[in-house]
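Design job #97: recover the sequence.
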C-alpha cells in the first residue's frame, strides 16, 4: 500500500512492529496521536496513557477515532488508522510522561478444546433524571448497573470525558473508565465501565465532574 497523505511521519516504537505513529501534534489544548496499524496479528490492540514522574497513572483518558483511506484517498469509517486525542488543558506537560501498552497475537489457539460460561442478564439498575450542563451539550438521564454508567444527553458532544465515580452505600467509591461515545442528530450516548462488576443494589449516588447525582 502506498503511503497516504495521513502519514506525514513514521515514528517507530521500540519492540513494536505492528503499529507506528503516523502523525502527532496539538490542536488547541488537545494532543492528537495518529497511529497506523500495519501488522497481521489476530488481535493487535493497545492504548496510550500518561503518568506523573513517579509512574502514577494520571486520570487523562483519550477519545479515539478509527478510520481508513481508500485507493482514491477518501476517508472511510473503519480501517488501519486510530487517532487518540487527550485534553491536556489543566495538565503541566513538563510533569507528565506519555506511555503506551500494546499487544499483538500471532495466531489463534488451535486444538480440541471447549469452553463453557454462563451469562446472567443485568436485572438491577438504578437511574435518575438530571440536568447537567457541559457547555456544548446537556446530560438529562443517567443509569448505573453492575457493569458501569450510561449517560444520555442532547447537544453537540465536544469529546471531553467526564470524571465519574460511583458512590456506594457503605461509603466506598468505585472508579469507571470511559468506554465509548455515540453522537447523532443531537442525541448523545456515553458509556463508562467498571473494571469489576459492582452490586448495583448498593449504589447510592454518582459524582460527575464533582457534582453529586442521587439515584433511585
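Job complete. Output follows.
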Amino acid at each position: 500500500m502506498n503511503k497516504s497523505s495521513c502519514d506525514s511521519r513514521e515514528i517507530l516504537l521500540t519492540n513494536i512492529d505492528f503499529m507506528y505513529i503516523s502523525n502527532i501534534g496539538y490542536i488547541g489544548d488537545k494532543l492528537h496521536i495518529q497511529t497506523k496499524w500495519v501488522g497481521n496479528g489476530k488481535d493487535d490492540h493497545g492504548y496510550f496513557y500518561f503518568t506523573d514522574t513517579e509512574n502514577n497513572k494520571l486520570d487523562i483518558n483519550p477519545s479515539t477515532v478509527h478510520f481508513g483511506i481508500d485507493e482514491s484517498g477518501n476517508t472511510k469509517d473503519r480501517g488501519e488508522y486510530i487517532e487518540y486525542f487527550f485534553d491536556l488543558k489543566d495538565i503541566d506537560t513538563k510533569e507528565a510522561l506519555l506511555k503506551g501498552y500494546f499487544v499483538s497475537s500471532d495466531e489463534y489457539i488451535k486444538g480440541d478444546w471447549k469452553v463453557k460460561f454462563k451469562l446472567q442478564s443485568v436485572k438491577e439498575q438504578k437511574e435518575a433524571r438530571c440536568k447537567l450542563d457541559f457547555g456544548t451539550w446537556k446530560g438529562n438521564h443517567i443509569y448505573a448497573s453492575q457493569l458501569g454508567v450510561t449517560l444520555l444527553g442532547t447537544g453537540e458532544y465536544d469529546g471531553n470525558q467526564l470524571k465519574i465515580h460511583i458512590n456506594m452505600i457503605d461509603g466506598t467509591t468505585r472508579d469507571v473508565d470511559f468506554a465509548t461515545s455515540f453522537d447523532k442528530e443531537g442525541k448523545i450516548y456515553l458509556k463508562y465501565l467498571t473494571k469489576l462488576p459492582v452490586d448495583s443494589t448498593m449504589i447510592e449516588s454518582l459524582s460527575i465532574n464533582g457534582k453529586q447525582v442521587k439515584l433511585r
